[in-house]
Amino acid sequence: TGGTVNWMSIKDATAASAGDKKPVFIFFYTDWCQSCKILQGVVLKNPVIATILNNSYHPVRFNAASQDKHFFFGEAAEGTGQGNPHKLTYALLKQNFHFPAYVIMKHNKQKLTELHGFMVPYQFETFLTYFLNDNYKKQTFDDFVKSFEGKLTKQ
Fold it and tell me: What are phi and psi of 29, to 5 degrees?
């Protein structure tokens, strides 16, 4: 799956997660966010990042200002009007509308984390790996980073 993330709808990702217990990774972007465009064009096309997302998560690319109806763990949510954040954006990001933004959810709707801002591939690999295999339960992120040896190099 080198370089291509197999994005899913939020409905399909949450349904799949409920079945196989893999976490859902939600990438929130907006059409006006330049960092989001760079992230999508460079970082998310990195083969290591794409492989982690495809194999270990149910990845969702979600337009934070979408006006469409989406189903999240079986519940319907709609847009809130042109130029306003979608109801799911409000629900998951609260009032922190800095993009790009990322949310990782467990199969049981538990939000594991929320992060905002641009990351280079090495940082993204570290972030994604920390929330796999219950690493986040075993050690702090700072301790994890000290011992983490990924496939990408620090930049």
Answer: -135, 170
What is the rounded distance in angstroms from the CA atom of residue 52 to the CA atom of residue 135? 15
Neighbouring residues of 49: CB distance < 8 A, sequence distance ≥ 6: 5, 43, 121, 124, 125, 128
pTM exceeds 0.85 for this model: yes
pLDDT means over runs of 10, the chain (155 residues): 84 94 96 93 94 97 88 77 79 86 94 94 96 94 93 77
Q: Which residues contact 81 (CB under 8 A, 6 or more apart)?
A: 67
Question: Which pLDDT score, from 0 to 100, does residue 1 have?
Answer: 44
Say how far apart CA 112 and CA 155 lie, in whole Å. 26
- Judged by phi (left if over 0) then psi (alpha if -120 to 50, else beta), residue 83 lies in left
Q: Which residues contact 64 (CB under 8 A, 6 or more apart)?
A: 28, 29, 30, 85, 86, 89, 93, 97, 99, 101
Residue 78's nearest CA partner among 3, 151, 10 is 10
pLDDT of residue 29: 94
Q: How far apart are CA 136 and CA 3, in angstroms?
A: 26
